[in-house]
Amino acid sequence: MKSNDKIIEFKNISKSFGDKCVLDDISFYVKKGEFLTLLGPSGCGKTTLLRLLAGFGNTDKGEILINGENITDVPPHERPVNTVFQRYALFPHLDVYENIAFGLKLHKVPTDEIDRKVRKVLKMVSMTDYEDRDVESLSGGQQQRVAIARAIVNQPTVLLLDEPLAALDLKMRKDMQIELKEMHKKLGITFIYVTHDQEEALTLSDTIVVMNEGKIQQIGTPTDIYNEPQNSFVADFIGESNILNGKMVKDRVVEFAGHQFDCVDEGFGENVDVDVVVRPEDIYIMNKVEGGQFSARVKSCTFKGVHYEMFVETDKGYELMIQDYNAFEPESVVGLIIKPADIQVMKKERVVNTFEGEIVDETHVKFLEETFECEHQDKFAAGEKVTVEVEFSEVDLIDHPEEGMLSGEVHFLLYKGDHYHLTVETDDGDHIWVDTNDVWDKGDLVGINIAPKDIKIVKRND
Amino acid sequence: MTKRSTWALPYAIFLVLFVALPLILIMVYAFQDGAGNWTLGNFTKFFKDTDAINTFALSLEVAIENTAICILLGYPAAWILANKKLNKSAVTIVLFIMPMWINALMRTLATAELFHMLGIQLGKGTLIVGMVYDYLPFMIYPIYNILDRMDKSYAEAAADLGATPWQVFWKVQVPLSMPGIMSGIMMVFMPTVSTFAISEFLTNNKIKLFGTIIQENINSSMWNYGAALSLVMLVIIGMTSLLQDNKKEVSGGIV
Amino acid sequence: MKRFFAQCYIWLLLIVLYAPIVFIAVFSFTESKVLGNWTGFSTKLYTNLFTGDMQGGGSLMHAIQNTIIIALIAATVSTVLGTIAAIGIHNMRSKAKQAITFLNNIPMLNPDIITGVSLFLLFVFLHISQGYATVVLAHITFCTPYVVLSVLPKLTQMNPNIYEAALDLGATPFQALRKVLIPMLKPGMISGFILAFTMSLDDFAVTFFTRGTIGLDTLSTYIYTDARKGGLTPELRPMITIMFVGILILLITINLRKIRNSKNAAE
Question: Which of A285, A353, B95, C191 has minimal Cβ neighbours within 10 Å of its Cβ?
Fold first, then answer.
């Protein structure tokens, strides 16, 4: 990559609002002319990042370069970028023409040139006859076109789009996606697009930056991100997927769902715990059990327009989602095959909860700002700093937050074939990961208990 | 972004200088004698001064009576105005609002002149009638506002659950319109208890109200005593507004 | 039947409420010095009012002039000060916002007499001689809160990205203010100005305590002194009538505009 191909570069950007860290050491660059999408759930920091680039708000740390020039301290009106805002932000006291001409007039462009440029962009967004209209009399889609026209008429180096289609209905959204893509091709300027809609991101982008909780999860082309998610968050967020606990037996052999499979991954080591992702359309399903790698019983089958979506229970009791063009009757027994190239193996981010703790006395240890009872020990003295480990499956969640040692909220959940893997955020903002068979929903308030026998105390490494 | 919050700075300084400081000065002067020594003398003087105490009591009495009459006359009027079946025209509403826009002194003067021409002896009776004249619109307007915006489905739901029209009125509409009544009380009680010119006009100077005493003391350079009397009035006003704040919280969701 | 009684009640109240004003208006068209004594139709009081040819010379005209000038200055300054303040308050964090809104509410909740006495004590304390300037300052004090309260809702209703959109399109903060923010806040500023103007016109108590002893009179204080002297200047009758009609026309146009606007919005 030649350095002059980088039109924008983010270097170690961090930003907090009060105690909440919304961007945590973000670094990446944008290539000239590409369509780059910042994708993530609400609150992941993608809009904040876009606003920092536009100049609304200051970074706590790090710098932003445009064409190699540090613009971190340049005020918004002097930055060579224009923004299409989520709720359009058209000026209600000006008509369509005046809205679009606003930026040009400020730059003292001659009147006849303004006229020419405004008409050109109006034509481009197919709004030719609307120039005298009051912006508030326009439909959502029309307002969106005017907002885009108002931005591109200034010929910015980079066009920023903050969830521009979020307020439109589905049909309109699809049409606008196509138009945006064409506009990008025609204009040849760099687009940076923010969305929480993974389908939109996959359709539009050259490059996708997946973000969660202020961190970049993965950067890549839509195909990369879809086919080779780097962690379970990306796998779950992009498209449908079966995510299962697995074990890398040795190079090119992985065990999951109670069977061993050939795969293409190497270098994980032997007998290492991993996460395995298999896309539902990558599982081959057939009527004969013979010839399959393993068998399963169909539990449900739903027609989804183009394909059928089936849930099956495997011979070893795991639930998998399968998409196929053929329907298989519920209760029928089927054979399944997964090809080595369709198995995506990911390193586990963690295999056990680890907390920083402090010994209180022989039977008590303090961590997560709470004192827990533990089994009698005399290896560590009171006041000693230790590491506390708790298995995912040994954390008990209960319905009533007030009855738990700690209380928290279910933040993120992942179905892993035979159990749920939850991320629970405590009231103090710490995370606890939990494996459970009970069904919880995102946002549920829960009580958290840990039995004394399940608290493992080890020496702190540092 | 945070920079624009500094735009409020000039006004903040203005408020401190012209709102906070003057109120602090009332307190300072109230607890000082003419020579600037700290004292409670102004208050003991007030409590020993039967004239002042009587006037104070009379002011409260007149204010309470006026407020009560305004509620009794104003609530039905507001209720009728807000009821689309009973009142279709917007003109009547404008007519009720309009007196609020006209100089109170002028209206009072006109009223007093009318009494005078009709040969009615000016006194406590004319004082109360005249005040009701002046402040009735201030009671009707807030009550009308809240009744007009009130969701009709509350009344329908109550009727559906078996309430008679009378019960609907007392158990649903009146409680829901309490915030309107409360701000009506504020808008009527406060100016009545603190008025001075109006009472002079309406009684031909026969009856003094508390406001008049404050004004007389200030005008005859008895600043400290005047400040102490003002502080007494501030306490009364403060108590009334506390009453309203509490009610607002209870029914905060409606407004 | 119910509707008939309801209408009777409403109109009875209105008749009683308006009787004094109508009575004054009727007797503004006669020359008699004493109210209630009809000495034939005449518009002499009106001509007197405008030519200033009356008992006591032009002091009534002076008072009217003062009233209008003070109201104009106070309303203008309040509108500027209040609008800038509202923009600042809108962008404040909650603690500071609470404090300043609390202070802002005080002049509206305080009875006039308290505002008057407190400002009087302030000017005494600061050894500022009282007159025109102190009256104007006092009027700004109780007018600005109304402007702030009229402009703030416009800011909260506004799409928070509008100001940023202007900056994004290359406007400096000042240009964004002039070309986008102010035009959008205009309706709030106008109603704030009107409120401030009428508040100032109506005021008696605050002017009374802050005008000092230089003989400055506004309409209210003029009426007060006049009435205390016993006789009401006859020319006040056409004055009251004109103001009444003026406000009637103003209110009707405002309400008509409101109705028209809501109809337009419904289309």
Answer: C191
Question: What's the pLDDT score for residue B248?
Answer: 41
Is C183 among the domain residues?
A: yes
Query: Which residue in chain C has the smallest CA separation from A86?
Result: C161
The enclosing domain of C190 has a CATH number of: 1.10.3720.10
User: Looking at the domain assignment, is residue C42 inside a domain?
Assistant: no
CB contact under 8 A, C170 and A107: yes
Please name the residues in contact with C228: beta carbons below 8 A apart, sequence gap of 6 or more.
B200, B205
For chain A, what percent of residues have pLDDT higher than 90?
60
- Chain B residues in contact with C106 by the CB 8 A cut-off are 19-20, 23
CB atoms within 10 A of CB A461: 5
- The answer to whether residue B7 neighbours chain C at the CB level (below 8 Å) is yes
Partner residue opposite B80 with nearest CB, options C10, C113, C248: C10
**C265, part of any domain:** no
Nearest to C114 among B10, B136, B230 (CB): B230
Q: CA-CA distance, C132 to C62, in Å (whole number)?
A: 13
User: How would you write the pLDDT of chain C (267 residues) with one tens digit per residue?
Assistant: 778 888 899 889 888 888 888 888 888 888 877 777 788 888 888 888 777 666 666 778 888 899 999 999 999 999 999 999 999 999 888 888 999 999 998 888 888 899 999 999 999 999 988 889 999 999 999 999 999 999 999 998 888 889 999 999 999 988 999 999 999 999 999 989 988 998 898 899 999 999 988 888 898 888 888 877 766 778 888 888 888 888 888 877 877 777 677 666 554
Indicate the number of domains in chain C: 1
Structure tokens given for B114: 């009318």
* Alpha carbon of B121: minimum distance to chain C alpha carbons (Å): 16
CA distance A195 to A205: 11
Give the number of B-C residue pairs with CB atoms closer than 8 Å: 220
Give me the pLDDT at residue C230, please. 65
| Tokens at B41, concatenated | 């003398």
Please say whether the dihedral angle defined by the alpha carbons of residues C91, A167, A195 and A75, taken in this order, is positive or negative. Answer: negative
Beta-carbon contacts of C110 under 8 Å, excluding residues fewer than 6 positions away, are: B234, B237, C118
Q: C182 and chain A: CB distance < 8 Å anywhere? A: no
C82·B103 Cβ contact <8 A? no
What is the extent of the structural domain holding C70?
Answer: 58-242
Structure tokens that stand for A391 in this block? 């298995």
pLDDT score recorded for residue B251: 32
Which of C168, C171, C184 is opposite residue A83, by nearest beta carbon? C168
Mean pLDDT of A277-289: 92
pLDDT at A1: 45
Write the burial class of residue B144 (CB in 10 Å: 0-12 exposed, 13-18 middle, 19+ buried): buried
Residues on chain C touching A56 (C-beta within 8 angstroms): 164, 167
ipTM comes to: 0.85
User: What is the per-residue pLDDT for C231?
Assistant: 65
CB-CB under 8 Å, A89 with C172: no
Q: Do C167 and A93 touch (CB under 8 A)?
A: no
The model's confidence at residue A99, banded by pLDDT at 50, 70 and 90, is: very high
Question: Among C172, C173, C180, whose Cβ lies nearest the Cβ of A91?
Answer: C180
CA distance C52 to chain B (A): 20
Both tokens of B144, joined, read 């009308």
**For chain A, which chains pass the contact test of at least 3 CB pairs under 8 Å?**
C
Nearest chain B Cα distance for residue C190, angstroms: 17
Lateral strand order in the sheet of A445-450: A395-398, A445-450, A406-415, A420-426, A431-436
Looking at the complex, report in whole angstroms how far the Cα of residue C184 sits from the nearest Cα belonging to chain A: 7
Please check whether residue C152 lies inside any domain of the structure: yes
Contact call for residues A51 and A10 (beta carbons, < 8 A): no
Helix orientation angle between B223-250 and B41-48, rounded to the nearest 10 degrees: 80
